[in-house]
Amino acid sequence: MHLVRPIRFKHAMVLAFTAGAVVASQSGPYAFDLSRHIVPPDEIIGGGPPKDGIPALTNPKFVRAQEADFLADNDQVVGLAQGGEAKAYPLRIMDWHEIVDDKVGGEPLAVTYCPLTASPVVFDRRIHGREVVFGVSGLLYQSNLLMYDRTTESLWSQLGGQSVAGSMARTGPASVPSELTTWRRWRALHPDTLVLSLDTGVSRDYTRDPYEDYEASESLMFPVSHLDARLPPKEPVLGSRGTKTAWQLC
Predict the structure, then answer these.
(1) Residue 65 C-beta-side C-alpha neighbours within 13 Å
(2) CA-wise closest residue to 54 among 122, 132, 121, 116
(3) pLDDT tens-place string over residues 77-114
(4) Whole-number average pLDDT of the chain
(5) CA 157/CA 203 separation, integer angstroms
(6) 106: buried, middle or exposed (CB in 10 Å: 19+, 13-18, 0-12)?
(7) Contact of 48 with 152, CB cutoff 8 Å
(8) Which pLDDT does position 26 carry in this prediction?
(9) Are the C-beta atoms of 23 and 30 separated by less than 8 Å?
(10) Is residue 215 domain-resident?
(11) Domain count within the chain
(12) Cβ(150)–Cβ(55) below 8 Å
């Protein structure tokens, strides 16, 4: 049984990249085989950056809470507590990397965050008994991050919670409870927490939100099939899927 985890849905986009290029199987900057798929291939589109253009963190470094002076009290973090270990993943870093392949409490996990939908989801990286590593494909489905595993190069929907194309299609990794909250609250609950370090090995300006202008806009850059006219398209909502509830801490 999974505990509740936070997911905040917001359709958005990003930087000054050219958007919306339809994927061509096994060609161009998005070389993925779409011959086996469970979603329409023409709805899988390029988000601008090529495969691994947004670099996932595979050897993350951490600092202690008292060393995380780069965080303000109201900065948002994805908080994860498992196996007696607590870790915080600041959104100011996740915005630039989207995936952290990590181990928490000895368990191999993928901490993911899609800035376009403002959704944090944590997955167990063991698929069919094999530990996999996820990367950022550069592709989107329904304005949401498509990850890929480096073993089979199948594409995985972050919010859909399953593989949508490739040899692993229809496979769903186990999700792990996490929390989207403020640094102040997470630190109060877990004073011994570790914090994802700014020392990522990648040159990025972590003081800048690359999505700030787009989040302030009312328009969408990427297509979404189902929009509810009762709400603005970027309105944060509470969502649920089956018996798993998604929620946001305010």
Answers:
(1) 18
(2) 116
(3) 999 999 999 999 999 999 999 999 999 999 999 999 99
(4) 86
(5) 27
(6) exposed
(7) no
(8) 54
(9) yes
(10) no
(11) 1
(12) no
pTM of the shown model:
0.86
- The residue segments making up the domain with residue 72 are 21-202
Would you say 39 and 156 are in contact if contact means Cβ atoms under 8 Å apart? Answer: no
Which residue matches tokens 């988000």?
47
Residue 89 · residue 113 · CB < 8 Å: yes
Nearest CA among 76, 61, 59, 85 for reference residue 10 = 76
Burial 213-250 (b: 16+ CB within 10 A, else e): ebeeeeebbbeeeeeeeeeeebeeeeeeeeebebbbee
Encoding tokens for residue 112?
A: 């993911």
In a domain, 11, yes or no: no
pLDDT of 22 above 60:
no
Q: Is the dihedral of CA 132, 164, 247, 116 positive or negative?
A: positive
Q: Distance between CA 248 and CA 110 in Å, rounded?
A: 20
Structural domain contains residue 232: no
Handedness of CA 48, 50, 51, 57 (dihedral sign): negative
Tell how far CA 203 is from the center of its chain.
20
Two tokens, residue 42 = 């023409």
In a domain, 10, yes or no: no
Residues 207-246: pLDDT tens digits?
999 998 888 888 888 989 888 889 888 888 776 665 444 4
Q: Is the pLDDT of residue 12 over 80?
A: no
Under 8 Å between Cβ of 132 and 143: no
* d(C-alpha 111, C-alpha 88), whole Å: 10
What pLDDT shows up at residue 231?
87
119 burial type by CB count under 10 A (0-12 exposed, 13-18 middle, 19+ buried): buried
pLDDT tens, 162-172?
999 999 999 99
**Mean local confidence (pLDDT), 192-205:** 97
